Each structure stands twice: as structure tokens, then as C-alpha cells.
């Protein structure tokens, strides 16, 4: 490969299977079953690659356009954690190429008609904590394989249609399924239909209104606002405490915390006249 025939190519694959290819060459390239388009949908800074297990560090940038990476899709989170590969390739013979980066998109930001996305290398998961954490509160997620709670059969989730929405995060309902006050605080709201489908947010407040209505407030607005008649799913809130697991969910058998674990104060500050002294 010579410098006169050297080019770069990027492949990005969303979780829903959509694949896009881009190149800084002035003509389209084809290899690995992908067509790499010669437009400005995406470019990337030089990679900073570490030795050993250090995480590759770089950034991708590009213009927001309807036929490539749209602002609406970014707001909807459809590009979150998308797979990304980058090659150096001889455009005169695409069989001569080498993979220079493999990883995923991290945090995506947008401004002035452009987007910027952090690139995360394959070693990024090594930054995550591993092993069991010994803590008074439960380490499971409500309804997962460790919790084992059947959210549907247990009545711990409900579906409802959007009526009113304020500031992109406050939902008001005149008719609401029978549920105890503050039942959904700390839970999750997920959009099931419409352009905002698959977006979800953490529920901050669940307030019973005068007349029997309900107000569900999120901690922050969704990337795209659901429209009236779009369907939502609300999942009950769980604060991970043993008392909540026992009284609200009747699931203490699967509680994954250690409620009788002494506190740090108990361990570090000896009590006068006690066995800790």
C-alpha cells in the first residue's frame, strides 16, 4: 500500500441491525459486504492506542443528515453503543487493508448541526466492576434473573396511553390503573409505540392528583417526546431495601443484599461500653 492509494473507511452497526459505511476516499469502496460512501457522514480523529489492556481513545465527528446519521435518531438513542470498525485500505485493491480500530460508540453529543461521539475500544468493559458487592441493599435489578420476580403476573407493571405531557418529562393521566400512592417512584417509564419507541426514563415522582388522576415525573426529559395515544409501560419502583422487597414485592427469598451487615460507622468507630470497644 502506498500513500497515494491510502484511504480510511468506517463501518457502524446499530443494535437494530442498520449498517452504514463511510470513507474519506472520493469514490465508494466495497468490501466485507458493505458499501462505504464517499460523503461527510462521519470522520474521525487520529487514534490514541495504548499498549496492553489500556482502552483505545478517540472521537468520531460528522454532519447530521437525513440519509446518514440524523439528529432524531441520536436523540432517540438509536446510535448508543453501536458497533464501530475502522480500516486503512488501498482503494485500488480493497483486499489490501488492515483493521485499525474495533469497538463501539460511547457518549454522543450534538451541536450546530454536527454530532460528536466517543469511541470505546474492546477493552472498555474491563473498566467495569466485577464480582459480588457485599452491601445491605439488593444488587439485583427488578425482574432480572437474580430477582426472579414476574413483573407481569405480579402486577408490578402496567401499560397506559399518553394523555398530557409537560416539559418532556411530566406525564398527567386522568384515568389511571389502580395502584398504591407513590407505587412507581424509582421505577421506569418505557415508550412502547410512536417515534419515541424504546426510549425510557427513571421515574422521580408519582403523585396522586385531586379527582383521581395521576402525575408521573421523570428525572429528565426523554430525547424525543411521546405523542398523545402513544403507549407507555410503567414499572414499579424498587429502592433495593430488604423491607421493600418483603412488604411491597413479597420476594425476600430472592433478596440479593445483606441487610444485617454492620455499617461502616459500626466498624470504624468503637462504641464505649459495647463489644466493639
From TrEMBL:
This is DUF2163 domain-containing protein. It comes from Paracoccus fistulariae. The lineage of its organism: Bacteria, Pseudomonadati, Pseudomonadota, Alphaproteobacteria, Rhodobacterales. InterPro entries: Phage_phiJL001_Gp84 (IPR011928), Phage_phiJL001_Gp84_C (IPR018964). Residues 182-265 form the Bacteriophage phiJL001 Gp84 C-terminal domain.
